[in-house]
UniProtKB/TrEMBL annotation, chain A:
Function: Part of the phosphoribosylformylglycinamidine synthase complex involved in the purines biosynthetic pathway. Catalyzes the ATP-dependent conversion of formylglycinamide ribonucleotide (FGAR) and glutamine to yield formylglycinamidine ribonucleotide (FGAM) and glutamate. The FGAM synthase complex is composed of three subunits. PurQ produces an ammonia molecule by converting glutamine to glutamate. PurL transfers the ammonia molecule to FGAR to form FGAM in an ATP-dependent manner.
Listed CDD domains: GATase1_FGAR_AT
Subunit comment: Part of the FGAM synthase complex composed of 1 PurL, 1 PurQ and 2 PurS subunits.
Designated name of the protein: Phosphoribosylformylglycinamidine synthase subunit PurQ
Stored HAMAP family: PurQ
Pathway in which this enzyme or protein is active: Purine metabolism; IMP biosynthesis via de novo pathway; 5-amino-1-(5-phospho-D-ribosyl)imidazole from N(2)-formyl-N(1)-(5-phospho-D-ribosyl)glycinamide: step 1/2
GO molecular function, one term: ATP binding
Subcellular location: Cytoplasm
UniProtKB keywords: ATP-binding, Cytoplasm, Glutamine amidotransferase, Hydrolase, Ligase, Nucleotide-binding, Purine biosynthesis
Gene name in the database record: purQ
Gene Ontology CC: cytoplasm
Recorded catalytic activity of this chain's protein: N(2)-formyl-N(1)-(5-phospho-beta-D-ribosyl)glycinamide + L-glutamine + ATP + H2O = 2-formamido-N(1)-(5-O-phospho-beta-D-ribosyl)acetamidine + L-glutamate + ADP + phosphate + H(+); L-glutamine + H2O = L-glutamate + NH4(+)
From TrEMBL, chain B:
The family this protein is said to belong to: Belongs to the PurS family.
Full protein name: Phosphoribosylformylglycinamidine synthase subunit PurS
Catalytic activity: N(2)-formyl-N(1)-(5-phospho-beta-D-ribosyl)glycinamide + L-glutamine + ATP + H2O = 2-formamido-N(1)-(5-O-phospho-beta-D-ribosyl)acetamidine + L-glutamate + ADP + phosphate + H(+)
UniProt entry tagged with the keyword Ligase: yes
InterPro entries: PurS, PurS-like_sf
Length: 265, 80
């Protein structure tokens, strides 16, 4: 494993504590909670105000929704409140290899925090999940192709090339990178194996709207950091927990992958 | 002191909201509309009189919350 074990032996599934972090306006925490619960882990719904020590947990998850009403920008207020409360601890948690995941609004929060794409440590965003090209909320099932070669700890359980039907529901999901470094950053994302999911059509080809609901360049739907332990995606695997594709892969595999990683860490 | 911060998109960033508003204005018969830029304005009341310090604080507020430097520019106006 990339980050040596601190327990020596592998961890028992029921001992794995997952912090599903919420504030006012998060609204997918229950689905996320049950995704981990059904797999035998010990998730907890924790309001940011009640969070004592992030190191009480083995995994931090930021759910979807409209945190703080999406005021200022989607995810910006939740990110600033996390930064104010646990910024240093969060960086240490990530550096020690503990997994951090964000779905939909949670992905926006991780981007606003500056931990995704995470090319360097910074306290402001180095990317943006911007208004969809359609300028409206896009809510429907989307087809995702798993592109990761094994770096992302949230999708190691999913074979590369697998196509999954996962619902999207967002108004701001277009990944933008700094214009002056756009090409360099996209090259790095692909070279570093940081691209995790891309939108495809029913033939499995990278296609435009409506298959790509937001206009993201390269059809990117989800990315991870360079170490693979911070992951964000716009569509909702927790809402597709039971919807298996013909190979038996569903949203469940995202949660199973990260639990397996923690067990072996 | 009151300070107004106007946050807009950097040049070259396509603004789907502005394009939609432009389209609607044209549909309403305003054929002369050439372009619509959407900006968000924050009016912040702040104690203290040291304008230099206030300006520095405003820049930090922008950096830490009010803008995303990947897409946004901002202008600051001091309103007495």
């Amino acid at each position: 494993m990339p980050f040596g074990s601190i327990w020596g032996d592998s961890m028992d599934r029921s001992e794995i504590k997952v912090c599903v972090l919420r504030i006012e306006g998060t609204n997918n925490e229950d689905e996320m909670y049950y995704a981990f619960k059904r797999l035998g882990a010990s998730p907890e719904l924790v309001h940011l105000k009640d969070l004592k020590d992030i190191f009480d947990y083995n995994c931090l998850m930021i759910p979807g929704g409209f945190s703080a009403g999406d005021y200022v920008r989607a995810g910006a207020i939740f990110a600033s409140r996390i930064r104010a409360k646990i910024a240093n601890d969060l960086h240490r948690f990530i550096d020690e290899g503990w997994p951090v995941g964000g779905i939909c609004n949670g992905f926006q929060v991780l981007v606003e925090l500056g931990v995704l794409p995470g090319f360097k440590r910074m306290d402001y965003p180095d990317a943006c999940l911007f208004l969809n090209n359609s300028a409206r909320f896009e809510c429907r099932p989307t087809l995702l192709k798993h592109e990761n070669k094994g770096k992302c700890v949230f999708t190691r359980n999913i074979p590369k090339g697998e196509i999954m039907l996962v619902p999207s529901a967002h108004g701001e999901g277009k990944l933008l990178l700094p214009r002056e470094k756009e090409q360099e950053y996209f090259d790095r994302l692909f070279e570093n194996d940081q691209v995790v999911f891309r939108y495809v059509d029913k033939e499995g080809e990278y296609a435009g709207y409506p298959w790509n609901p937001n206009g993201s360049a390269h059809n990117i739907a989800g990315i991870c950091n360079e170490a693979g332990n911070v992951f964000g995606m716009m569509p909702h695997p927790e809402r597709a927990y039971f919807d298996k594709n013909k190979n038996g892969i569903s949203g469940m595999n995202v949660f199973e992958s990260v639990l397996k990683y923690i067990e072996e860490k | 002191m009151k300070v107004e911060i106007k946050v807009g998109l950097k040049e070259g960033i396509t603004d789907p909201e502005g394009l939609n508003i432009k389209k609607s204005l044209k549909l309403l018969g305003f054929d002369d509309v050439q372009n619509v830029e959407v900006k968000r304005s924050y009016v912040i009341e702040i104690s203290g009189k040291d304008e230099k310090k206030i300006r520095e604080d405003i820049d930090m507020m922008c950096k830490k919350l009010l803008i995303n430097p990947v897409i946004h520019d901002y202008e600051v106006e001091m309103i007495k």
